[in-house]
Every structure is written in structure tokens, then in C-alpha cells.
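S.,

Sequence below, as promised.
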Amino acid sequence: MLRCKSCLATYDPLQADGTTYFHACPPLSAVELAAKVVAGKIVLPIDPDTLVAETAEKAVQRRVYERANKRDENLPGTKASDAGQVKAAGDGTTDLGPKPPAVVIVPK
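The prediction came back faster than expected:
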């Protein structure tokens, strides 16, 4: 199991069917965007309907807010030299150890 240091997602790079999973961070959620606004990292535009700053909920419906440190493990291209490369490393990952079992039998 791995944890993405950019978006804090937890994922298994090897899926149950044996295929490889290539993680890519999603855009900011409304909650994450609201936190950036409170921290002074971004100012939301004026909502033309209300003439006050948009809410984070409305903002994420109108546009995509990408992370500056976005991780994208997909290959950057199809050349042989692209093997082992990633589109964007972001802040990297933390190894959380082996995946826990899907089913746990609890003794009587």
C-alpha cells in the first residue's frame, strides 16, 4: 500500500486482478479549496449572481482547481525511454507496507 504525499490518497499499486494501478491526484475538492481560501492561498472570483465572492462549492462546479504538487504516475509517452518514468512526481509517496487482508475472521 502507498500513500500519496500530494493528495493523501491511499492505494495499492497492484490491483486484485494483477493489473498495475497508476495513481493521478484528483483536482481540489470544495473542502480543500475552502481551506486554501482561508489560508490566503487563493481568492475566489465574484459570483455574477450574488455579486460577492463565489463559494468553494460553486467554484469547483465552474472550473477545475489542480494541485501545484499533483502526482501523476501515468507514463509521459509511448517511447521506450519513457519506461519507468512518471508524468509528474508530485511530493512522492510513503510506503505503508503490505495490503491488509480483505476478509478478517474474528474468533468466537
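The mean pLDDT is 91.

Coffee later?
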